[in-house]
Amino acid sequence: MLGLPRLHHRLVGSTNERAKELAAAGAPHGTLVTADEQSAGRGRQGRAWSAPAGTSILASLVLREFDELLPLVASVAVAEACEAAGVNCAIKWPNDVWIDGRKVAGILVEGRPQEGWAVLGVGLNVSTTADQLPDELREIATSLEIAARRSPSREAMLETVLATLESRLEDPRDTVLAAWSERDALRGRQLRWDGGRGVGAGVDRSGALLVDTDDGQVALDAGEVHIGS
């Protein structure tokens, strides 16, 4: 069962780092680390992830049953949990969840597959208000409170995320890919990345991003992709 055992911190450097320590020490599948606040939270590409204390889900799970689609599975589960709160979501490859073009959640997967574990980190803005967002983030970030003009409690939202994720982890590959594709924020959009540009064309069966370029279709399995030519 996801979420048990659970270790909660009022303040921690990073829930992912704490969960990785526990995983390396033998923590069982489903172990959950949560926090009210992080002092060194981070997302993909090493970016800082900050949130006012008590406003966001800051959670990391130890998983010992997973495959290469875990980032996509997680983004679908988080999107569905947000949708249950009354909003429409899109997903920017591979696993940023958007509401109306603004980021509401980020997912970070780290681990040692050769040792049989991964850590899945979720940062989800729940009750953050507009005036709590830094000036530089107000045009690109949002929360359930901002988007839906109301928000469930963090605990209620966490329970929904865990339940949805547990269900989605059992889904066959085609079901996951179909659910992800329904929310694909990049399909048909002009994209650029380090070394190229093209038009988003979905994902392949491994979860790699497909892009149509002047020289043919390419598959990107890592890196940062930006919208715009």
What would you say about this model in short?
The protein has 229 residues and is an alpha+beta fold. The chain folds into two domains: 176 residues, Bira Bifunctional Protein, Domain 2 (BirA Bifunctional Protein, domain 2, 2-Layer Sandwich); 38 residues, no CATH class. The protein is built from five helices and twelve strands.
Task: Using the CA coordinates, give the radius of gyration.
Answer: 17 Å
Secondary structure: helix percent: 10-25%
Secondary-structure element series? EHEEHEEEEHHHEEEEE
Q: Under the CATH scheme, which architecture of the largest domain would be assigned?
A: 2-Layer Sandwich
CATH topology of the largest domain: BirA Bifunctional Protein, domain 2
The CATH superfamily of the largest domain bears the name: Bira Bifunctional Protein, Domain 2
What fraction of residues sit in β-strands? 25-35%
* CATH C-level label of the largest domain: Alpha Beta
Number of helical runs? 5
How do the strands line up in the largest sheet? 1-2-3-7-6-5-4
**How many domain units?**
2
**Average pLDDT level:** 92
Runs in which pLDDT lies below 50 for 5 or more consecutive residues are none
Biggest beta-sheet profile: 7 strands, mixed
Strand tally, please? 12
Distance between the termini: 44 Å
